[in-house]
Design goal:
Layout lengths: L48 H11 L5 E4 L6 H6 L5 E5 L2 H11 L11 H6 L2 H25 L4 H9 L2 H5 L8 H16 L9 H6 L6 H14 L4 H18 L24 H9 L3 H13 L9 E4 L2 H7 L4 E6 L8 H4 L1 H8 L7 E4 L2 E4 L16 H17 L3 E6 L15 H11 L2 E6 L23 E6 L2
Parallel strand pairs: 1-2, 1-4, 2-3, 4-7
Antiparallel strand pairs: 5-6, 7-9, 8-9
Helix pairs in contact: 3-11, 3-16, 5-6, 5-8, 5-10, 5-12, 10-11, 11-13, 14-17, 17-18
The protein binds S-adenosylmethionine.
């Protein structure tokens, strides 16, 4: 097949003598059957994909459509897609991007070999570097100082170094040294007209907090070029950015709920903060991206037609008109909204300059520490007064499709200091039985009790293990 050159549609920034090359081995048999973790994800079912698949196969032996209704990181969708057609649904755009890249890789062999070179040498990169160079240099100096034992400036940078906070008028809380640099960078960005559009979004919102300014710059530069490639390969490239951001982010647990806390609860700086920050912030975005891009472009296409929707689960269940045999559902069970942990990934995909929520502490207002989007999704599954009816809707609509439902649940384990569940498994089972004749609960990964039928009163479910509730219409 002739390789498609993506340059034609990339636009004016690019030297058209350069070609983008990276051959796509479309058949990579090794990749089949291997579970993939595209992003670090809370509650990822990576370890359980085999069990989930065999449970689904036991419920439906026809190999027909399975709908992964809360697809999250896409790990389960991808694994199931090797052996049956999949419909992936999630309310978040970053999930749609990852699932689309994993399930429906481009059909044509595009080449991307010097894509990174193009990004690094682009006009956009040069402009942005000029604009934020003072902050890049200042951050290096703060890290150096911290490694030598002077921790103040690095702590301050992590706490107050957000350009968006400065733009919103909260810069007065900084030291004169940081204030001066933020002012200079903001005026550079204004001069280049980069305060309104998406071109400097990652630098302005997350530079210095979640990523180093240099890393944020590289992410912006990649995103700018990606916005100009043909639509059919955009998700592949964007997914590689999401995986990169998840790998390099300088936080505890690699999620985006808040930047790393540089101080102890008594306000004194943490001794090892310099080393910790240096470790994550010196990771090169371009080479990490290159590695992820290779992973995505070598994803094999399967023989099935997979569908991916960014949609509320109830709307999706109304819209689906395929003959779905099984719905696999892994909704959230605690008060923690997933959108709080992954809002940065959502903004990376949307590039929409979102409004940021503010917080007031001791009478002082500032942008939220996590730089949260004001419009971040609030799931009914995470709201105590709405969780029961959210589940009621789930059981009712899936039953209406005449599909079986396989529901993931991880019971609350006090000893492990888990977050309390908003709904108990007994309550869930009662709702399930209103709609389904046959309801059973199996424990995952606990072989001695691997198949437990609760109606036997013979159950001895390990409440620290994950369970699947299997609901069958017949
Ligand atoms: C527990 S995670 C799914 C994890 C996934 N099984 C995995 O292995 O990565 C729950 C997902 O539900 C999604 N979600 C929450 N409320 C939703 C809604 N109303 N409609 C669709 N998806 C929703 C969240 O965005 C999140 O990705």
């Amino acid at each position: 097949m002739k390789n498609q050159n993506v340059l034609d549609s990339i636009g004016p920034d690019i030297d058209s003598n350069m070609s983008i090359q990276l051959n796509l081995p479309f058949e990579s048999a090794l990749q089949f059957q291997k579970a993939i973790r595209p992003i670090h994800y809370l509650g990822s079912k990576l370890r359980f994909v085999d069990f989930i698949r065999s449970t689904i196969d036991a419920v439906d032996s026809t190999g027909g459509y399975v709908c992964d209704l809360f697809a999250g990181s896409g790990t389960v969708s991808k694994y199931l897609s090797n052996t049956r057609p999949v419909i992936s649904v999630d309310i978040q755009e970053y999930t749609r991007v990852i699932c689309s890249a994993l399930l429906n890789p481009p059909c044509k062999p595009y080449q991307f070999d010097n894509f990174i070179d193009l990004c690094a040498k682009s006009e956009h990169s040069k402009k942005l570097r000029w604009a934020i160079d003072p902050l890049i240099n200042y951050e290096s100096m703060c890290i150096r100082r911290a490694l030598e034992g002077d921790l103040f400036s690095l702590c301050e940078l992590i706490e107050n170094g957000s350009i968006i906070g400065f733009e919103r008028g909260f810069g007065k809380q900084c030291s004169p040294e940081l204030f001066k640099i933020l002012k200079k960078v903001s005026s550079h960005l204004a001069e280049l007209n980069l305060l309104e559009g998406p071109e400097a979004l990652i630098v302005r919102y997350y530079g210095g907090l979640y990523f180093s300014y240099e890393q944020a710059l590289q992410l912006d530069v990649l995103l700018e070029l990606i916005s100009r490639v043909p639509k059919e390969i955009r998700d592949t490239l964007l997914a590689a950015i999401l995986s990169t951001a998840s790998e390099i982010v300088n936080t505890v647990g690699k999620q985006f709920a808040q930047p790393i806390r540089p101080r102890k609860s008594d306000g004194t700086p943490k001794k090892y903060i310099g080393k910790r920050v240096q470790r994550d912030r010196s990771i090169d975005v371009f080479s990490t991206f290159q590695r992820w891009l290779k992973c995505y472009v070598t994803q094999p296409r399967t023989e099935y037609i997979h569908k991916v929707y960014k949609m509320d689960y109830l709307n999706a269940l109304d819209l689906i008109d395929d003959d779905v045999k099984v719905v696999y559902a892994d909704p959230p069970y605690t008060r923690d909204h997933y959108s709080r942990f992954y809002h940065v990934l959502e903004t990376i995909c949307l590039r929409d300059n979102p409004k940021i929520s503010t917080t007031s502490v001791n009478g002082k207002t500032n942008v939220s520490r996590g730089i949260y989007r004001q419009d971040r999704h609030q799931s009914p599954f995470c709201i105590k007064s709405k969780a029961s009816s959210a589940f009621e809707g789930l059981f009712q609509k899936v039953r209406g499709l005449e599909s079986s439902l396989v529901l993931s649940y991880s019971p609350f384990d006090k000893d492990k200091k888990a977050r309390p569940r908003l709904i108990t498994i007994d309550k869930l089972e009662n709702i399930a039985k209103k709609y389904y004749n046959k309801v059973s609960v199996v424990s995952i990964g606990n072989s001695s009790h691997s198949k437990l039928n609760r109606s036997d009163k013979n159950f001895d479910i390990s409440y620290s293990a994950e369970v699947l509730m299997i609901c069958e219409p017949k």
